[in-house]
Amino acid sequence: MPQPDPVTRPSGGRSRTLVLGGARSGKSAYAESLVGEGPVRYLATAIPDPADTDFAARIAAHRARRPACWTVLDGADPATVLRDSHPGPTLVDDIGTWLTARLDTRAAWDAPRGTIAPDMDALVSAVAQYPGRLVLVTPEVGLGVIPATRSGRLFRDEIGTLNQRLAHVCDDVYFVVAGLPMRLK
What we know:
The structure is a single chain. The chain has 185 residues and is α/β, with parallel strands linked by helices. 38% of the residues lie in helices and 19% in strands. It contains six helices and seven strands; from the N terminus they run βαβαβαβααβαββ. The chain has a seven-stranded mixed beta sheet with strand order 3-2-4-5-1-6-7, with helices on both faces. Strand 2 (41-44), helix 2 (53-65) and strand 3 (71-74) form a beta-alpha-beta unit. The longest helix is centred in the C-terminal third of the chain and has 20 residues, at 150-169. The chain is globular and about 40 Å long. It starts with 14 loop residues before the first strand and ends with a strand.
């Protein structure tokens, strides 16, 4: 995985970075390279289903890649956790699984669009106000075909809107394709 450009990598203080990419693009590994190995707080937003062995294997691969010194909060809600600062960088992986959990929690898959707007507003506000180093990982799903199902279109539309809002409040934005990061902002 390419290392971040040392000229553009923040040296400390307040900085928010959004890392977008498709499935298996290398976005998580790149985001991890941005935070280093210090006292990182890692917000893992996935809520694993014990019956889903494929997803469990993906989570295990992420866990094996992380340094042991990182503090990991599993099933974390970044809109809540980011209210508290952390002495080192905070990494959120990923916004797509957080969004899915919010849609599940609010039973919003068949609800009118905008049902989870308060959750999205809270997340964008927490990111905008976060006082420290923050790196967010999120899926970019707008490059594919239009989903055939209502739930697929809902997710695509909501994550697209949320990604735009997060990109607006972040200082740096990267798009990762085939393991190669491209700086957008």
